[in-house]
């Protein structure tokens, strides 16, 4: 019988640089391969499995809703979708939400909303400012908003109307908006794929002030870092800066596909029936699971615990940096998303070494290792990966 790897290599398009590992099941923060070997997960399906694996609330929500209704057209009302919309809006800056299926789709929706708002309401042009180092998705609008050329290669020409400025350079953004050609700025509070680059508070406040004064919209792309990842329910809450539009996706339905575009009423009203749609967006099954997920992360004390664990892992990583100053260039950490940036080591090679030792991580950029464990990770489990990473670096130091 052919293996999963053999079948994948034969039949699936070659779009992923997969690790040589077949995963079969999970429990808590641990994944198991087809041979029963265990791996402590510090990847979380790229910040998706925030409650870990085989969570009883998620499983129960799937089973219960699957027996009732899996899908129905958005031409009709469903309680799970309506309740999820209420929870998202009542716990954020937003008044309205549009549901879709992924982060890229959420960004596409945000771009469309910003542009139709400009045409119908603000009178600004259609252009959008985005950041160098950004990543917003793989569909054409999201890809065009993404500044990194490695993702553009072979897909040119991109969609017009996007201008990239340096992350943190307020003057560059201010110089662009003087003519009224721009309708929005889209920014990730933390650039996950860019290397876990954390937006400076003063810069984000400056961008908010700039957009407000010029009748522009501020879009916060929180696909990777929203919903508890940074220690607050939404990442913008770390800065006291409210956006006009926010995109969510990855962890919202516990591993099932969902995306969301949240907006203030005066922005959302630019959308009318027929302007935008999604066949599967916010269907009853995924919405029911998303409700269960949201209820868990908003329980009293949950996010406080995430903040405490974030301090713990940041401290441990900084200790590692002080121990290996010639190997580790920088540590960047907020909530439970962290980056270990190396001087010369290839992050992919370190990730492969960690797999050999029973740990899963992701490499972003050539020399940046990203840690995004489930939000339910334990301190003892953090200690285990710190120890493993320390041993790998000690071997590198000795070999060097």
Could you describe the 3D structure shown?
- The structure is a single chain.
- By secondary structure, the chain is α/β, with parallel strands linked by helices.
- It has two domains: 4-55 and 300-399, Alpha-Beta Complex (Aspartate Aminotransferase, domain 1); 57-297, Aspartate Aminotransferase, domain 2.
- Helix content is 39%, strand content 18%.
- It contains 14 helices and 17 strands.
- The chain has helices at residues 4-11, 44-47, 56-66, 79-90, 103-122, 140-145, 149-152, 170-176, 201-213, 265-268, 284-297, 302-323, 347-356, 379-399, and strands spanning 23-27, 30-33, 38-41, 96-100, 127-131, 162-165, 182-187, 190-191, 197-198, 217-221, 245-248, 259-263, 328-334, 337-342, 359-360, 362-364, 368-371.
- The strands form four sheets. Strands 4-12-11-10-7-5-6 form a seven-stranded mixed sheet, sandwiched between helices.
- Strand 2 and strand 3 (38-41) form a beta hairpin.
- Helix 3 (56-66) runs antiparallel to helix 11 (284-297).
Fold topology:
Layout: H1 4-11, E1 23-27, E2 30-33, E3 38-41, H2 44-47, H3 56-66, H4 79-90, E4 96-100, H5 103-122, E5 127-131, H6 140-145, H7 149-152, E6 162-165, H8 170-176, E7 182-187, E8 190-191, E9 197-198, H9 201-213, E10 217-221, E11 245-248, E12 259-263, H10 265-268, H11 284-297, H12 302-323, E13 328-334, E14 337-342, H13 347-356, E15 359-360, E16 362-364, E17 368-371, H14 379-399
Parallel strand pairs: 3-15, 5-6, 5-7, 7-10, 10-11
Antiparallel strand pairs: 1-2, 2-3, 4-12, 8-9, 11-12, 13-14, 14-17, 16-17
Helix pairs in contact: 3-11, 4-11, 12-14
